[in-house]
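Final report, Chapter 2: Outcomes

The project's central promise was a pipeline that accepts a single protein chain and returns its three-dimensional structure in a standardized token representation, suitable for archiving and comparison. That pipeline is now operational. To close this chapter, we reproduce one record exactly as it appears in the project archive, with the input sequence first and the structure output second.
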Amino acid sequence: MSDWRFHLLTLPDREWVDRDLQLQAAKVTQGLSVPDSISGRLPLGYRMINAPSGKRALTEWGAAIVAEQDGRDPVFAIVDSLSTDGDWLNVGAGGFTSYPTGMPWVDKEFSSTKVDPLDVVRMIWTNLQNKPDGNLQVIVDQTKSGQYLGKPEGHELSAAKQFMAHMQEQLDYTKEQAEEDAKLVEQYATKALAAAGLPAGGLLVRQTSAPSGDKRTKRNLWFQGNADGLTAAHTWNGKKWVELSNAKFNVASDWYFEWLDQKEILKDSKAMYTKTKEEFNTAKSKVNDLSDQKAEPYTLNWWDTPDVGTIITDLATQTPFDYREETTWNGDDALTHRLRIGYPELGARRENLRLEIGVNVTAPPPLTESDYASEVTVLGAGEGRSMVRSTATRDSGRLRRAVVVERKEFTKTAQTSREAQTELKARTSEWTFDNLALVDHDMCPYGSFDAGDWLYLVGDAGWVQLDQWVRVLEIEVDCPTGQLNLKVSSS
């Protein structure tokens, strides 16, 4: 692992103060859906150093530290904590996603009955950065979640809309099925004609006597026979009907009977489509009849929104989505910040990387036994019978054990359903862990994975043999030693 370098610049004017900041005992942490951070200490006298412009160089919310290492993007953090300890000045800095924390909504009221949570995140960042001395030049991903915020509409209307959506799916399915069946009818007819050497578009005629009139055309195929069976097949050469060879007759007749069977299937699918369309129209009428059960809008206002950072954190949990900070150099002196958003999550399974206890994992992780439940009910917003609720169960081979979890911030069944599954998955009574200590190693070198990625872990953790995937939630680097500490999810 190459050495770390640190730089100091002022904010919001971005005046470089020190391009070789001697930050001691430095630690750099990058996390998933949390701000990055840089911490360390400087000589006490550094507190009085001025920038070239004459302003104080190192102040809370007036300076930023940039950490970089060869081959990796820099880490940017805003100085938000300064304290003294003997001859040292302790410095703490948080990534740019810490900026919204504690900031109130001061703009005009925002109100919407249908807004994507990620649009709310972008709106908050836009409004913050449009304020004087507030522009960190953060670019927010344009990711959409497809979810919508707002108070749930009336129960009857929700049920009616849900049923109408179900009927829409059925309608789409039956329509698609009828169209596919119609295509097969046409295909089988074409194959029967092709077997007789005829182009597509002709008629398939079955009768005991030779067709006359308009049916005597070079495009049509006459199957001689009745409902009991076929005896021969003929094509018209312009003067007379010519019997097909036995080989052609056999192939053509096979496709003919496929065609007949498919016509019956098409008849049934058309009938089903017609019936489903009537049921869909009935469901649609019921939705219209319940239009008075209107939803209440999602709002942001100055008198009820003191912390937009908390709003972003809550939306990330409820939607859900992941975010991660990214900073890159733009030339030698300029930085570009991007808020990377992933719905429903960021990260990938790193199949080419491996963690092994005793090799690159320096010590077995401390294990704790998780809670056990075979049934989890999550209670969301609302009261009494109108409360949003979801239950998840599993057959664990043990006694039934049910628990209730309250998540009053959840206003939709989809949210409580996801949370119930998550809670159930975590309550396995299995041994879990949340931290790993490792060293930079070719099997999983630092910089080859990001927060949000999944890494494969094997090894003896004492009396438990680990052989599983873990998700990286946070990466902390002790810069002087190169020691890596990972916060992980092992479930």
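Archive annotation: DSSP finds five helices and 26 strands in the chain.
This record, like all others produced under the grant, will remain available to the consortium after the project formally closes.
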